[in-house]
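Quarterly update, task 2.4: flavin-adenine dinucleotide-bound model.
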Amino acid sequence: LPVPGLVVIGGVAAGLSCATRARRIDPALPITVLEKGPVVSYGACGLPYFVEGQVRRLDDLIVYTPAYFATERNIDVRTSAEVVEIRHSSRQVVLASGERLPYEKLAIATGARPDLSAIEGSQLPNVFALQTLDDAARLLQFIKVSGPRRAVVIGAGYIGLEAAEALRTHGIAVELRTATGDVLGRRDSRLTAILEKHLATFGVQLRCSMPVREIVENCGELVVIATGVKPNVELAVSAGVTLGRTGAIAVTDRMETNLPSVYAAGDCSETRHLVTRRDVYIPLGTTANKTGRIAGANAAGRRESFPGVVGTSIVRVCGLGVALTGLSESQAKLEHFNPVRVTVDAKDKAGYFRGRPTSVELVADKGSGVLIGGMVIGEEGVAGRINVIATALTNRMTVEEFQELDLAYAPPYATVWDPLLIAAQQLSKLLH
Ligand SMILES: Cc1cc2nc3c(=O)[nH]c(=O)nc-3n(C[C@H](O)[C@H](O)[C@H](O)COP(=O)(O)OP(=O)(O)OC[C@H]3O[C@@H](n4cnc5c(N)ncnc54)[C@H](O)[C@@H]3O)c2cc1C
């Protein structure tokens, strides 16, 4: 048997961040990454833009190859290497081929898969998910060969919204169905109304509260299922790893599972929400990279912690940027805050610089005056503004502190009173 070292299961964001960080810290540690698929290190985030045509080749989404890891980082990355069992008592993983590999430290970075369980007919040839390179290739091939004129996208999370936009670029009329009354999981009727109107102008019909339970043949020409993902936890569970309240792997802030020397990171694990202080499941590439890094550092002997997330995300919806962080007003109520909210519709830069409408929402807790959520919608400057709010949330800033921030201004970029500061001033009045 090879010398035991760090074995990582899963070769995408979390797994490779973990392996790379461990290598930087310990140049002598034997590190093996086991990936069941045919490729590693690809950016699933780019898949909608491949379907759309902006990314020309799927290979452009692959960042590094196993050969690169072997020569540049001295990490043994194996593809088509599915782990079928973790034998923790003897510190071994068993591959589908029957091969056994010993480990001293193990990192589980098995990610997530589309949740197709609630919909019958998901195996039909005109039904697609959008999770892997192969999914995207098959979807684009279907569009080119079959030339569908209509499509139903099930789910209005960010993947459903991106898929809808991608299908529109092929001239396909899209119906976007949600099971609940809202979009982007935000419980925000104003956001839903804004997107419903915006999508309609681009030929996408948003139909909320219309759950799909079954897809029957010839129901429409193309169906994309984007109803969210389920963490891949079965392998870990059968080895005795404990799940958290969300159904993903429970981890400490050092990304340790309940089993000694076994770490978990990325989309298969939970994380801590810094606003609610509760464990949450928010599977995103940003967090997968960071938690993978922390798992790798600790597996290599350091003591490092991942503080948590504030739930920041951004998506382009038919040209409109929609960015969220923290809690919406109704989410805040469910979390037992006493929320106050303002919405400001302003220009994203000086009017004489063709300033375009932008909408900023801030949510604060009335008792403490601390900011607990925000949303920015607009064509430009959306990422910059949501990142300011996310920074404030991370640092538990009050509205008073936020409205004094020294934000940048020049006519091509902003207004002298940035929309964020206008919103904070208005919110401050409601707090007093
Ligand atoms: C269409 C799309 C768009 C996205 N856009 C964004 C975005 O804009 N911003 C953002 O932050 N995030 C985005 N994401 C999410 C992001 O891609 C994921 O959060 C990230 O890939 C998670 O990384 P991971 O390493 O935890 O898991 P994964 O990427 O799921 O990788 C896990 C790997 O483990 C392998 N594996 C599983 N079980 C085994 C086993 N038993 N043995 C061996 N290997 C195994 C799997 O084959 C897989 O390759 C997007 C995702 C999709 C699908």
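Highlight for this quarter: The longest strand covers residues 100-108.
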